[in-house]
Amino acid sequence: MTLTLHGIGVSKGIAIGKVYILNHQPIEVNECTLSKRALEGEIIRFEEALTVARRQLQEIRDNIPKDKDNAVDLDAFVEAHLMMLEDSLLAKDTVNLIRIHQCNAEWALKLQCENIMRIFAEMEDPYLRSRKNDVEQVVNRVLRILRGYTEINSGSEDALINAIVLADDLSPADTLHMQHYGVQAFATEFGGTTSHTAILARSLGIPAIVGLHKVRAYVRHDDTVIVEGEQGVILISPDENTLSYYQQQQQREKRHRTSLNKIKTTPIATQDGIPITLHINIELPEDVEAVKRVGGDGIGLFRTEFLFMNRSSPPDEEEHFEAYVKVVRALRGGVVTIRTLDLGADKQVDSKRFEKNATTNPALGLRAIRLCLKDPKLFKPQLRAILRASAEGNVRMMIPMVSGLTELIQTQHLVAEVSEELRQKSQKFDPHLSFGAMVEVPSMAICVDLFAPYIDFLSIGTNDLIQYTLALDRVDDSVNYLYDPLHPAVLRLIKTSIQAATRANKHISMCGEMASDSRYIKLLLGLGLRSFSVNPAAFLEVKQIINRSHIQHLSRLAEQVLKASSSTEIAQLLEEINR
After folding, report:
1. What is the separation of C-alpha 180 from the centre of its chain, rounded to a whole number of angstroms?
2. 476, 489, 496, 498: which is deepest, by most CB within 10 A?
3. Which entry of 81, 177, 196, 320 is annotated as an active-site residue?
4. Which pTM does this prediction carry?
5. 8 A C-beta contact, residue 386 and residue 395
6. Is 511 a catalytic residue?
7. How far is CA 72 from CA 68, 198, 414, 513, in A?
8. Residue 196 annotated as catalytic
């Protein structure tokens, strides 16, 4: 009998194979009180463990095949863990705890890990909050070294070939190790859509499911399973008919991927000749290589939060400028839309300010443009850098989480102030730099017509728009079942925003995850959207859907969707739209 379990699908694809259950050795940590004379020796032992961990990660990084398309992406993940090993929050503060508590290194590291976890747990942004998993993985690596444990993949190379790995969680290093040995798919009990496991799986093109709570209670080593990454389904001990069906689906999927590569250079337009803009979202400057691989020519969202991560002080103007200009020059005239800082009250760059700015509901607190306007010393270096980068190419500036007109006007005053500073220094910039805002807050979506005269373009951020419209935390397991891009209120806000922008003759795009989801592309076209910005992995598939669409037909069906009140009716109409 086939047993089916459901988790969160984070990387598309179908894999069929034998299970390899990865059991991380449990790391038991007990407190030991040391004499004052033993403290310096204990600190040296801890620092040596950091050195070994650093060497292990460097070896993993050096063994990434440089001829692989995703080598830059994979290297960035390992670098993130190396940076954490250098962070004073982990290294220096643990040493201080050894001295303060006169305890062993393992106990001090455990205490400091708990301190860092509290900081990350309060973060509103799901991407940044999920980085706590990376801290845990780095800490566990050091703890294994301190306890004398061997690497988790030691002696398991042959068993990993063509296996489907089940684990509680995986670090980027674990994932890279296993990909090197030909693992077909991953399934983990923990993790989310923005975890490094998920991001790596998408980058590697490996089917993956996370959030499969207690999956290892139902699966044994060497069981045959099917992983369906898009739907987040794992089928255990499938019967012959089920196995045959998914084998056929695998072949169909393979042919589909091959066909997508053939459209890299084709224009982007619907069947009835309407041109559509399709850009790409990036997280890091190195991601520009992924843009080129799929034939992209513009960036609709360049997130800048990476500049503020894994450090105790904010980046200066030159750090900002170097990151931005690297991307601008690489695009050679293609548009680069730089989103200004989107951190929150619980994500200040100075770790000593966390407690002072703590809030019970950071999603509704001091984040994004609110934070930037409250702290111009944090904001102005970024504005100067964006303006300077605009002299090098086609740059646009985009403001996140705008809820009122005052925020736009205050930001424009700061931009004018910074522009004058640059003129006085004879530094070049584009005086006509395009200035845009994100539609993420319902108040913005409802009042696009009022805000339009003050901006050049808009971009709909569906991740937050859905969350705020439906009053839920999308990463909270107890309520995220309510997260629904097809909720009538969400669709009506999207339609309202598009209509208002069109009437005001303002360009409007969508850069949220909804734009990267193949299920919603035709519906969005029917609602009037003519510009998308998607993750690199989704680019060619979205392009193909657009090129096969007919606007007039989709517009009629989209109007019916807007009038529907039940989820069942909307689902039926969506199925008709996607035929």
Report:
1. 23
2. 498
3. 196
4. 0.73
5. yes
6. yes
7. 9, 17, 36, 23
8. yes
